[in-house]
Each structure stands twice: as C-alpha cells, then as structure tokens.
Design a protein that fits this description.
Order of helices and strands: EHEHEHHHEHHHHHHH
Strand order of the largest sheet: 1-4-2-3
Mean pLDDT: 93
Number of helices: 12
Largest sheet: 4 strands, parallel
Radius of gyration: 17 Å
Distance between the termini: 16 Å
CATH architecture: Alpha-Beta Complex
Structural class: alpha/beta
Strand content: 5-15%
Low-confidence stretches: none
CATH class: Alpha Beta
CATH topology: Protein-Tyrosine Phosphatase, Chain A
Number of domains: 1
Length: 229
C-alpha cells in the first residue's frame, strides 16, 4: 500500500512438499530455501512420514485438537455451512471458527516464521490453500499488501490445484460426496476478504487479532522485515 515491494522468494506457499522429486528438492535448495514450516497435524504426518531432508523442517500444527474438541468444532462447522447462503460465506465462517479455536496455533506458526534463520521459508500443509493460505495472508498483510491483492493470491489456489481436484471429483462415490468436494475445492477471493473484514471489525485491526493470540510487537516487526527487508 506504500508503493514498495515484497521480497521475492522470502516465503513460498506450497502444498505437501513430500511430492517433490529429488530434482525438485535440489531446485528448492538452489532457490534459497533454508526452512520448511509444516502445518499438518500429527495424524497427517503419520500417513506421510517426513524423510531426511536437506533443509530444517519445523512442525507446527495449525489445527490440532482432541477428539472431543473436534466433535464440537465439527458441529460448529456444520451449523455454519447450513446457515451460509453460498460457498464464499461458508468458507469465511469456517476460517473464522478455526482462527478463534486455534489462536495458540496461529501464534506458534507466525512465531516460527519470525524466528526462522535467514533464507527463504516454505510454508505448507496438505493442499496449501486453507491453513497455509490463512497464514500467508497474515504475512502479506503485515508486509503492507492490500487486502484485495491478498485475496487474489489466495484465489489462485483453486486454479493451481485443479488437476488434483479433478481427480477427487472423478473418485467421488456419490452425488453428495461430489458436491462436498466441489464446495471445499473452491477458494473465492470474497472468503478471504470476509475474514479480514470480520477480524478488523471484532479486534480493530489484523495486528490486534494477532497480538491477542500471543504474537509480540517485536515478532510482528520481524515478520514484516522478512518480507520487506
């Protein structure tokens, strides 16, 4: 918003990096990546155990809860989806539920980026659009990127993940399942804009929300410096 530019290559948003080939890992290191931040939960890592990698890997689950807590969250999500008039609204509301329920996880992920050693940082979960999309949206905001540009970056996920989503759709075993997959595959820009508007309305600013999770002013400044130099 001040006319400056983000530092190219400082933070890379990705889906699961376990898909990389040996040549892909070599390219990642050559690109300047020193740290990988894995936002997946423990159960996801059990299905896809981390291998020995040429960079430091930080495991900071963005959403981790007990079975009982997940049952409560599932009820909240189901109610929000039923009440929403469209996909953009239901996605926004789901994200807001996660951001309130997992405030400590949000703080831990941001602190991990702030405290990472020099060099580029890859942030990833499984698909790279929801957990990773929210975290990177906060980073871009701290760097001074306008909300509309952040939302446009988030919306690219649907296009970039289309090949994977098409495989999901083809494997659906019912119309109901196909409809569910089509809904969660969408990344409307309006959803991310709605998240920012709701947090600004409730907390006064995005920075105030982040401080409420436990991120310090010094860490906010270090996050900004990582993306702006």
């Amino acid at each position: 918003m001040d006319g400056g530019e983000t530092r190219f290559g400082a933070v890379v948003r990705a889906d699961s990096v376990s898909q990389l080939s040996e040549a892909g890992w070599e390219a990642l290191v050559a690109y300047g990546i020193h740290t990988v931040l894995d936002l997946r939960g423990e159960h996801e890592r059990e299905d896809d155990p981390p291998a020995e990698l040429p960079v430091e890997v930080l495991h900071v689950p963005f959403m981790e809860a007990s079975e009982a807590e997940w049952e409560e969250i599932a009820e909240e999500l189901e109610a929000a989806t039923a009440a929403a008039p469209d996909v953009a609204t239901s996605t926004r509301d789901a994200y807001l539920i996660f951001l309130e329920r997992f405030r400590g996880n949000v703080a831990a992920a941001l602190k991990a980026v702030a405290n990472a050693p020099g060099g580029g940082v890859v942030v990833h979960c499984v698909g790279g659009k929801d957990r990773t999309g929210l975290l990177v949206a906060f980073l871009l905001h701290l760097a001074g990127v306008p909300n509309e540009e952040i939302a446009a970056d988030y919306a690219l996920s649907e296009e970039r993940l289309r090949e994977r989503h098409e495989a999901w759709f083809a494997a659906a075993d019912s119309e109901e399942e196909l409809e569910r997959l089509r809904r969660i595959a969408q990344t409307p820009a309006r959803s991310m804009l709605g998240v920012f508007e709701a947090l600004e309305r409730q907390y006064g600013s995005i920075e105030a929300y982040l401080r409420s999770t436990g991120v310090t002013d010094d860490e906010l400044e270090r996050l900004r410096a990582r993306l702006r130099g």
